[in-house]
Design a protein that fits this description.
Radius of gyration: 14 Å
Strand content: 25-35%
Distance between the termini: 26 Å
Number of domains: 1
Shape: globular
Number of helices: 5
CATH class: Alpha Beta
CATH superfamily: Gcn5-related N-acetyltransferase (GNAT)
Structural class: alpha+beta
Number of strands: 7
CATH topology: Aminopeptidase
Largest sheet: 7 strands, mixed
């Protein structure tokens, strides 16, 4: 398993893995993924024999990203590394790839001395993701209700 920076050339594969993870990952178009990569501070993929099998995309505060969840963190915290999405291809789930990706995020956030911000859907429920984040020392710092869903806002201190 290799971990490498993501590039715009990876967009279609990122989108396919993201689609595999719906509804937990949140629907996004290929163009929106390209935009995220351009805004992203820390965007890496897990590659198995040169095939992308998982990824994480993170942003710093105050970019031109229109996510309400991201805006919540901007309104409540000055500094953070925001995990916009993390996803692993179905075939490679339960192989600790998500944990390895998160460890890369944790290491990077510690270099910058920043907390890590993320949200997890609670309506519709995503108990697996909540367990995953709690296992990685995240705590709930708020709840945000949207028109059709609700998310728990989570933070991991450096």
């Amino acid at each position: 398993m290799e971990f490498n920076d993501l590039h715009v050339d990876d967009t279609l594969h990122l989108w396919e893995i993201n689609e595999d993870g719906l509804p937990g990952t949140g629907e996004i178009s290929p163009d929106e993924i390209t935009n995220l990569l351009n805004l992203g501070e820390f965007c890496i993929g897990a590659f198995e024999e040169n095939k992308l099998v998982g990824f994480v995309i993170c942003l710093l505060p105050n970019t031109k990203y229109g996510s309400e969840n991201y805006a919540w963190f901007n309104n409540n915290y000055d500094d953070f590394l925001y995990v916009d999405r993390i996803a692993v291809s179905k075939k490679y789930r339960n192989c600790k790839i998500g944990s390895k990706l998160y460890q890369k995020v944790i290491d990077y956030a510690q270099e910058l001395n920043l907390p890590i911000a993320a949200e997890v859907s609670i309506n519709p429920p995503n108990p697996g993701s909540i367990r995953f984040h709690l296992r990685h020392d995240f705590i709930e710092v708020g709840v945000l209700h949207h028109e059709k869903k609700s998310v728990t806002m989570m933070l991991r201190n450096p």
